[in-house]
């Protein structure tokens, strides 16, 4: 049987994931990673590819940055280097993801174009690693926080991509075509996600 402590720990991980994905969605509540979202969310397939890559990079770098910060930067008194250190870790992972995508899915690699290497400067990924420092998480909890944050970004871009595909053939006023209607969609979706705020506090 699973002990009560294990159940409590599993429950806390689930709450961390849900909180990062919904109540504190990095794209729709924090408005981070907007540039990649606007550029890639024209189609569901490209949105899915980039979203999966972001989940992998965000979860991995959140966990790694936790270890680097706690066991290297803090003992050496180098906390002020956290920003540049986090960027280096993220850049290394993005290079790895880029090589994997190019090797196993050239079509997706060509579809994503410049936006795949731009994950390096995706402020959503860096933001999640920095937000993590303000929370009393251990290594496993930091990983689930990054996983939830990446999933939240993935969910948002998939929804936006689906809506943009549906309205692609619609007759829109000239001033709303392209980024205009996309920003309105994001704004309306943000209102829905902000409604989750305060429901879960981790």
Q: In words, what does this structure look like?
A:
With 202 residues, the protein is mainly α. Helix content is 70%, strand content 0%. The chain has helices at 4-23, 34-40, 44-73, 82-104, 106-112, 123-132, 139-166, 179-194. Helix 4 (82-104) packs across helix 5 and helix 7 (139-166) crosses helix 8 (179-194). The two termini are 27 Å apart.
Number of distinct beta strands: 0
Residue runs with pLDDT of under 50 for 5 or more positions: none
What fraction of the residues are assigned to beta strands by DSSP?
A: under 5%
Rg from Cα: 18 Å
Query: What is the first-to-last residue Cα distance?
Result: 27 Å
- What count of structural domains? 1
- Topology as a string of helices (H) and strands (E): HHHHHHHH
Q: Counting H and I runs of at least 4 residues, what is the number of helices? A: 8
Any idea what the shape is? Answer: globular
Q: Would you tell me the structural class of the helices and strands?
A: mainly alpha
Q: What is the mean pLDDT?
A: 83
Query: Strand count, sense and closure of the main sheet?
Result: none
Any chance you could write out the topology, listing elements then pairs?
Blueprint: H1 4-23, H2 34-40, H3 44-73, H4 82-104, H5 106-112, H6 123-132, H7 139-166, H8 179-194
């Amino acid at each position: 049987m699973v002990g009560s402590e294990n159940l409590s720990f599993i429950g806390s991980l689930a709450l961390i994931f849900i909180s990062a994905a919904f109540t504190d969605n990095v794209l729709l509540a924090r408005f981070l990673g907007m540039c990649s979202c606007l550029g890639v969310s024209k189609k569901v397939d490209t949105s899915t590819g980039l979203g999966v890559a972001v989940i992998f990079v965000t979860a991995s770098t959140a966990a790694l940055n936790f270890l680097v910060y706690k066991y290297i930067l803090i003992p050496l008194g180098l906390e002020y280097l956290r920003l540049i250190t986090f960027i280096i870790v993220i850049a290394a992972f993005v290079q790895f993801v880029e090589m994997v995508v190019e090797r196993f899915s050239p079509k997706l690699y060509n579809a994503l174009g410049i936006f795949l290497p731009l994950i390096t400067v995706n402020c959503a990924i860096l933001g999640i690693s920095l937000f993590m420092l303000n929370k009393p998480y251990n290594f496993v909890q930091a990983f689930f926080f990054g996983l939830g944050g990446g999933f939240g970004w993935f969910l948002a871009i998939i929804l936006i991509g689906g809506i943009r595909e549906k309205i692609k053939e619609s007759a829109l006023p000239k001033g709303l075509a392209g980024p205009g209607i996309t920003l309105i969609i994001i704004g309306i979706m943000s209102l829905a996600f902000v409604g989750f705020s305060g429901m879960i506090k981790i």
